[in-house]
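In the design runs reported in the main text, the only information available to the sequence generator was the tokenized backbone. The following block is the verbatim input for one such run; it is reproduced so that readers can re-run the procedure and compare outputs position by position.
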């Protein structure tokens, strides 16, 4: 028996989130569910795979990390091929490697990187909106970057999300928060030690509304410094959000 670390990519459009749901009259499709089904076809007998994060319904991933224990007599490359042969078209294993027996993708993570894409168009564009939030009136790169400027640092982000556990801390350390232009998209990249539930989508919503003049210019700053406690009431669309990567100590040591 060995523990394997797998990096997954998936299109979240047709999934009810990453996490397998509890008992329901009508089962829902989840990323965890289809991965575990594929593993069961390879002889996996575990109860649940471990994951770096639990993405919401409609949210995508390019670098979700999972781990599981499996009796596998072949090389990791063969496991990669076997998994992809059994996974549906909207999920793919990008890499498979052996890891230490106590590795946990969530608790061992040093940081996580999310990317959020928006397009500024007055009319719908079905070919673009699967992976982006369409906003109008248009917003500028400079204004979005100004709205994001207070984010790096260690703050209480309780006005932008809720902890995984009801009594958990809402303090998080953001290492990077930048906007850039990529073709017709404006892309927000944020790196933090961990994220609250809905934190990225609320932060993007707040930044867009600030630049559109629908929230005060200091709406983010005043919440981070404690002047305002109320939660931002609004969420950016899940379709623009991608879990881009997760960083571990072993990765840093290889640099």
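Verbatim output:
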């Amino acid at each position: 028996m060995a523990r394997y670390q797998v990096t997954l990519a998936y299109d979240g459009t047709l999934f009810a989130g990453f996490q397998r749901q509890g008992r329901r009259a009508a089962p829902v499709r989840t990323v965890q569910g289809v991965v575990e089904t594929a593993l069961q076809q390879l002889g996996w007998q575990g109860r649940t795979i471990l994951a770096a994060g639990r993405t919401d319904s409609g949210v995508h991933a390019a670098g979700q990390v999972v781990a599981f224990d499996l009796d596998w007599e072949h090389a990791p490359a063969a496991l990669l091929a076997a998994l992809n042969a059994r996974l549906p078209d909207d999920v793919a294993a990008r890499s498979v490697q052996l890891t230490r027996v106590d590795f946990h993708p969530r608790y061992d993570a040093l940081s996580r990187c999310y990317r959020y894409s928006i397009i500024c168009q007055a009319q719908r564009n079905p070919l673009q909106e699967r992976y982006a939030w369409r906003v109008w009136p248009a917003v500028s790169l400079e204004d979005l970057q100004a709205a994001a400027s207070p984010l790096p640092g260690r703050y209480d982000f309780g006005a932008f999300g809720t902890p995984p556990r009801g009594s958990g801390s809402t303090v998080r350390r953001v290492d990077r928060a930048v906007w850039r232009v990529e073709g017709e998209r404006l892309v927000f990249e944020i790196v933090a030690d961990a994220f609250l539930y809905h934190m990225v989508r609320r932060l993007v919503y707040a930044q867009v509304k600030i630049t559109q003049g629908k929230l005060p210019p200091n709406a983010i700053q005043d919440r981070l410094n404690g002047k305002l406690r109320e939660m931002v009431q609004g969420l950016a669309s899940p379709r623009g959000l991608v879990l881009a990567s997760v960083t571990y100590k072993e990765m840093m040591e290889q640099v």
